[in-house]
Amino acid sequence: MAFDNNIELYGMVLSSKPVGEFDLRVTLLTKEKGKISAFARGARRPKSSMMAGSRPFSYGKYTIFMGKNSNVISAIEIENYFENISKDISATYYGFYFLELADYYSKENIEAKEMLQLLYQSLRALMNQKIPNRLVRCIYELKILVSNGEYPEVFSCINCGKEKELSSISITKGGTLCPECEGKFHDTIKIDVSTVYTMQYVISSDIKKLYTFLVSENVLCEFEKILRQYYSMYIDKSFKSLEIITTLEYNTKD
Predict the structure, then answer these.
(1) Which of 15, 109, 147, 173 has an alpha carbon within 20 to 30 A of 167's alpha carbon?
(2) Domains of the chain with CATH codes
(3) 76: exposed, middle or buried (C-beta count within 10 Å: 0-12, 13-18, 19+)?
(4) Cβ-based neighbour number of residue 140 at 10 Å
(5) Tens of pLDDT along 56-92?
(6) 24 with 14: CB under 8 angstroms?
(7) For 142-172, how does the pLDDT look when each residue is reduced to its tens digit (9 = 90+)?
């Protein structure tokens, strides 16, 4: 419901930056208007009612005054702070990476219901100790590609159209290949049929059903390898949180 220039938007804080002495500039991913920036006046003052709701991961209803030159948050009703994520350093940086990726893909004034739902469910999955963060990341990365319409073809051979016995994938060509066609491309990656099924499931499933399965270490490693190469080729941005995740995982292995 809108009153004058105030509108109510459901969304999550992607980032917030200090402005002046007491204010914050907040970037939100909203269901109704996609990415939007607004000022939280006085949010850095002690005991400010705006402080908690201006932090990254905060999800709820934001009432925003849409000004001619800038937007101002006038009220916040938070439904979930995802505070448990901050209790685990690994989950924290995975979460920040998810926020950065959502910021990268979201656009202003374009409805983002699906992307917001994906982000929300993925953060919930990070708090589920039964699902490895590495798997949550792979699912999120692939599904956000789906929401942007640029995911790899994994339901048939990209050369001949065969739908069975898909045994490899070409990153440059953007899809899977059958045994008869894989030799025609120089950059193919051999993949297990279970990896193909996993990617097919993620691409075709409803967001609410994404984090309901586990995979073997071999499948997870193949899943990771495919997405690392795919993102390296098609995304022209580096993410600070991802660099920290890589360091953390490397130190864990040691």
Answers:
(1) 147
(2) 6-81 (2.40.50.140), 84-253 (1.20.1440.120)
(3) buried
(4) 26
(5) 999 999 999 998 889 999 999 999 999 999 899 999 9
(6) no
(7) 999 999 888 999 999 999 999 999 999 999 9
